[in-house]
């Protein structure tokens, strides 16, 4: 019995120490946003690839083998009728609401209904089982939309904050990192719960500066700008100088693999400061294990300890403080890879423009 307890304790320590930590992305990683078509791993240059949760385990594994991290996309504020769990959402009383404007296949969710939680948790478990490194949960900003405000009892900002915190806590419990998608109105309230953020078109609306505090905490923001560098060159240079945001620029309103990883010094001049730490190399932190080797001879016993050292690099990001008043509430979102119930994969690439209320 005296020998059994130490053996059990040692086994527990070894198992715990060999568990890989959750992916913690850092400021300065490059990314690509590819919801609209397949990913050719052989030509992908970005460090991080964001794609639909319906992508195969094999595709995710191939990206990992190429040294990439993978973010898996799904909507947590709406339900699309092509999702394989659509019927399960429809069975929950009061959960599925009216149609998302301009998206006949997509309907808003009243995520205050408790029945949504096991369904979203199941999606996150699916992402974890596929070895996604993180998840992007879309459409948390329904409280700003006219069609949601038309409900008898509409969603509020506080509802979004509560739901966002639950999403982040749930993702972390499953070993997943999680990003806050758009929804700038709550970033100061929930930013500490999230590992990264994803933004569409903050350059177009001159509101990228609102991520300053989030980035200063060492958390990356992955941005996408549509309609090409030539159209938004000046705005890109102005908004991103000194900020530390990673930007992919798409030539059109399509989330295909082709795109430009924006380099400010190339497009803005040598005085451009991307705001990134000096070194962009980022790795996933792993817990280290200390093991003991015992060597026995006929005359004596020698004990050697081999310790793997953990090296931590602290990076600081400095950005220039500024105050700007924004006057718009328009979000452009691209979609998505759909898998029909018959198992046929359909690529949907469409454009959504909705007007938000302040």
From TrEMBL:
It comes from the Eukaryota. Its EC number is 3.2.1.22. Residues 284-332 are annotated as: Disordered. This is alpha-galactosidase. InterPro entries: Aldolase_TIM, GH, GH114_TIM-barrel. Pfam families: Glyco_hydro_114 (PF03537). One of its GO terms (molecular function) is alpha-galactosidase activity. It is an enzyme of class 3 (hydrolase). Keywords: Signal. It catalyses: Hydrolysis of terminal, non-reducing alpha-D-galactose residues in alpha-D-galactosides, including galactose oligosaccharides, galactomannans and galactolipids. The keyword rRNA-binding does not apply. Residues 284-300, 309-323 have a biased composition (Low complexity). Residues 30-257 form the Glycoside-hydrolase family GH114 TIM-barrel domain. It comes from Piromyces finnis. Residues 1-21 form the signal peptide.
């Amino acid at each position: 019995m005296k020998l059994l307890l130490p053996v059990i304790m040692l086994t527990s320590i070894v198992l715990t120490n060999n568990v890989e930590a959750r992916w913690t992305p850092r400021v300065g990683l490059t990314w690509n946003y590819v919801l609209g078509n397949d990913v050719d791993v052989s030509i992908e240059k970005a460090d991080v690839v964001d794609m639909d949760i319906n992508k195969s385990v094999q595709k995710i594994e191939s990206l990992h083998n190429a040294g990439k991290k993978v973010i898996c996309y799904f909507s947590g504020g709406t339900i699309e009728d092509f999702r394989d769990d659509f019927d399960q959402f429809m069975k929950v009383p009061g959960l599925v609401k009216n149609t998302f404007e301009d998206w006949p296949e997509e309907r808003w969710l009243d995520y205050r209904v408790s029945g949504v939680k096991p369904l979203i948790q199941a999606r996150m478990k699916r992402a974890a089982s596929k070895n996604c490194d993180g998840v992007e949960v879309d459409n948390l900003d329904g409280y700003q939309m006219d069609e949601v405000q038309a409900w008898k009892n509409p969603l509020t900002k506080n509802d979004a904050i509560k739901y966002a915190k639950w999403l982040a806590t749930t993702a972390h419990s499953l070993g997943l990192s999680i990003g806050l998608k758009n929804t700038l109105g709550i970033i100061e309230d929930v930013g500490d719960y999230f590992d990264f953020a994803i933004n569409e078109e903050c350059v177009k609306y001159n509101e990228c500066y609102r991520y300053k505090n989030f980035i200063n905490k060492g958390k990356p923001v992955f941005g996408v700008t549509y309609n090409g560098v030539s159209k938004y060159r000046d705005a890109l240079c102005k908004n991103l100088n000194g900020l530390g945001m990673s930007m992919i620029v798409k030539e059109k309103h399509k989330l295909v693999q082709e795109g430009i990883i924006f380099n400010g010094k190339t497009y803005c001049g040598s005085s451009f400061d991307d705001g990134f730490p000096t070194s962009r190399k980022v790795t996933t932190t792993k817990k280290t294990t200390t093991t003991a080797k015992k060597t026995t001879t006929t005359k004596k016993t020698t004990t050697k300890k081999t310790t793997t050292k953990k090296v931590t690099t602290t990076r600081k990001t400095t950005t220039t403080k500024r105050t700007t008043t924004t006057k718009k509430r328009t979000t452009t979102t691209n979609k998505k890879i759909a898998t029909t119930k018959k198992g046929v994969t359909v690529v949907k690439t469409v454009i959504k423009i909705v007007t938000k209320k302040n």
